[in-house]
Specification:
By secondary structure, the chain is of the alpha+beta class. It is built from 13 helices and 13 strands. The strands form three sheets. Strands 5-6-1-7-8 form a five-stranded mixed sheet. The relative contact order is 0.11. It binds a DNA duplex through helix 7, strand 9 and strand 11. It comes from Commensalibacter oyaizuii. Belongs to the DNA polymerase type-Y family.
Amino acid sequence: MIGLLDCNNFYASCERAFNPKLEGQPIGILSNNDGCVIARSNELKPYVPMGMPAFKIPPHIKKKITLLSSNYELYGDMSQRVFSIVQEYIYDTELYSIDEAFLHLQNKQNATEYCIALRKIIHQCTGIPVSIGLSLTKTLAKIANHVAKKNTDYQGVYFLNPDHPAFASILQQFPVTEIWGIGRRLSVKLSNMGIQTAWQLRNCDAHFLGKQFSVVMERTILELRGIPCIDLEGTHTLKKNIMTSRSFGNATNDFHDLEDIVRIHASRGAEKLRSQHSLAQAVLVFLKTNRFHKIKSQYHPSIAIPLLYPTSDTREIIQAAQNGLRRIYKKNYLYQKAGIMMLDIVGQDKNQLNIFSNTNTDEAKKRSEILMQTLDNINKKMGRNKIAFGATKSTASWNLKRNHLSQRYTTRWDELPVVKAV
DNA sequence: TGGGGATGT
DNA sequence: ACATCCC
């Protein structure tokens, strides 16, 4: 039995857990740089569609609602609290996103009751409401989760049983657009073929549509029939690419700004590599101008710099990234975004010696490992970027815009919630 | 007017 | 070296 646990309106619920005044209010959380609405409380949903840019919200609506900058430090910590409880009660879990986890439930008989109890504990300990969908496959568990959220009769847990008579009618009412793995583009194509509901897709020729679209489509159809094709992924599955990027608060064409930015992303990328015990064989650097400025000329360059040997050493990754930056930078453009990607990732055991390199001797390799480990340990203990390569002004104009940030209630001593006894 | 991925051509 | 698709 597969479960999908999903926190309800997660970001909004995190804000409410520490600010009860927001209870029952229409609130929205904004993306980085206070750009788009990326999370909404139920009360906001009728007024503001998902993903709407903040500047497009009509003023008379804006007056009546609360918009907050995203506070990932808070959400990340609350996420850990929720899932550490989940993992106390369920051994086999896959953390799928900041607010979702797939669960593998051994005992089919009492799964629903067990999940109802788990849900209560999570709410009691964290203040976060969650919904749990149960079924035979991940794709069906996702649908079950929608049912659990929509229908208040179920106490937040619903078991979608393919053998139950209700199964067909639930899938008949479920639009293809909302199926996990079917997005806007695909649902338009399916709609043109006359396929509009999950039930219709379930009854299609999986092999034929697999050829027409992709293996992903084929698996989705089989999963809709209750045949598991997508396993739970353990923490051991290595990422094949690692990207870190960010849009700027203000566009810039200053080369030194871009060097700072690329260095920060390269350091972060190297950290991510080390945290999954892998090495990259190439680093890709990219820049982007603002794609919404139709009039100004656009430039979206990228370049992949091969590394001499697989590495996760911050210094070498920074070197490569800055070489790449130098080669793609042109001063006549205003850049809005920059980032790096780690490519051709391999396991740490692939760190073979290279006879052509005097920086990859056994001795140098050991020293690099010790240095990086020390760096990671200090930053883990003292806070991200406590120790870094090169200094960066914290007032730089390209820094994130976050004008409506709430307190980081759970991770900063000076931002703890204050209780007043009257 | 977001960030992070996988996969296709 | 992109482009497309998805969450």
